[in-house]
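Pair request: fold both.
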Amino acid sequence: MARVLFLFLITAAAFGLVVFTAWHPELWEPWLDAHGITRDDPLFRKGLKLVLAIVLGIPLVALIYAIGRLGSDRPQRDLDGYTVLRLRAGTRWFTTISCLGLAALFFAYPMVDPVAPIPWAFQAAAVFCLLIIPVMLKAKVRYDNSTLSVSNSFGGSSRFRWSELMEVRAVPEMKHYLFVFENGKKASVSYSYAGLDDLLGTAQSKLGAHPGSAGSRRGTTRI
């Protein structure tokens, strides 16, 4: 929580700096004039985007990631003896609040701008944002010694057998692990699930027990 508060203060300070700079062009316009650069100059626009991406983008992304990591990192057990992983509390509630905010904006925009083209597109986007919420809140990974069940993007779940696991691949650019099974079946598990280390440990042991798996042949699960 302390890290979240620290990053929030950094992000707020960065936003305040950008606002202050925008309200006081006399601080930077003379420098632009001295170098023959105007506000309409493509070089100025590209430079402005780069500065905003660095000053605002980096702390904002770090803040969102820190919020998403809030909550317990322990798996749960259900009444049937399955180990259950759910998205961290920070991820669930940040996504819920963000989707509600976006839905409100999309619903309100056609009313604020009555001449906006294809208003139904904004309403469809708002409905889509609202549909994401129950999917995220219900998302879970459920497994025992023989099977693995992973929620999909449509609110359902896909079931796999550990005996068919071929490889576990880390995909850091997409923030998930990809579980590859026989016959080309795949399951994606987000980094945001609580108790992920236990799941990966189970996958490691299952790969080591299968002589024909990719992980067994290489001695690694690529995670």
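--- second member of the pair ---
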Amino acid sequence: MPVLVLAGDEEFLLGRRVKALKEELLDPTWASVNFQRLDNANLSAIIDASGQLPFGPGNKVILIDRCDLFTKKRSKGGAAEENDEPKVAKKGKDKVDLLDLFEEAMGAVAPNTYLIFSCPHNFDSTLKTSKAVSKHCQLITFPKEKYWVGTPNPKLDTWCQKEAKSFNATIDTNAVTYLLDGLEADLRQISEELRKAATYILPKTHITLETLEELTPFHSHVFVLTEKWISGRFAEAHLSLKELLSRQSGMPIIAMLQTMLSKWIEMKVLCDKFNDELPTGGGAQKRQLPVGELAKRVAAQTKQHPMVVEKDLKRIGKHSSASLMQKKIELTRLEDLVKTGQMPESHALEVLLTK
């Protein structure tokens, strides 16, 4: 089928597929004249381009890059709205529906002309443009795989193993987990780290956790910093902070800490609520739900993965909701001092880690 729609939030895999299609479909000798790229083109431009034929042997490839025709846009108020493409076009003396012309053009693309839509968003089948193209295209989707730190994901594990194999290497399971957690399942970055590791270990071909820890020290990651801080490992937290600040400014770290504290406070308040709702008899000690049950109830309220919630609840188990709120108040105070120029970012974070 000469019309291909590649759509999804996983831009790395989508881009890789586009590159592979170009190499597969184009004759290298004629590639310079038989390849055309249109940047987020409108319907009129696509209709005009779809009638082209290849020059010489091989195929003609027309890439409509960064296409948003098949995804709902967002207005300033956050409401979804369809693409604002004109609804009519002039054809001779008559007015013709532009979508009808688009659909007709998609069905008339020559067999050796390939129209590739590269859409860095998930395909919305409810749109009129999507319905028009669906009748004549092959849809290939690239949804971003959801990943929660610390939670097994067989699909991503397998992808990492295959990616390592593409660099003529194998990799330990714990090394895969290290990459997924440390890079938050960013496939582009993971691929780059695997490439570096595979080159570094030559002539060997097996990537171990020790190799990755040496090449990519994720202990500086902000999530690790918060875990060390909230668990009272202040000396380790200061070391992580020092390394983290050597790579970036302090404001993104402060913003992330604000987010983490807000999430933990919400969880702790919900736990208090669920425990307070338990029936108690006269003189009986206050009952508490086990952490597993609390995690299920909190996850249902906050729409998170229960396993992730349970790990967070264990992480903040020694803290009350009041103490977490006090930490957030202190962080907000320090953030204000930084933003008003009264305290350096690094000093503010160091003060926070002592609390």
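Observation on the second member. The CA atoms of residues 271 and 294 lie 6 Å apart.
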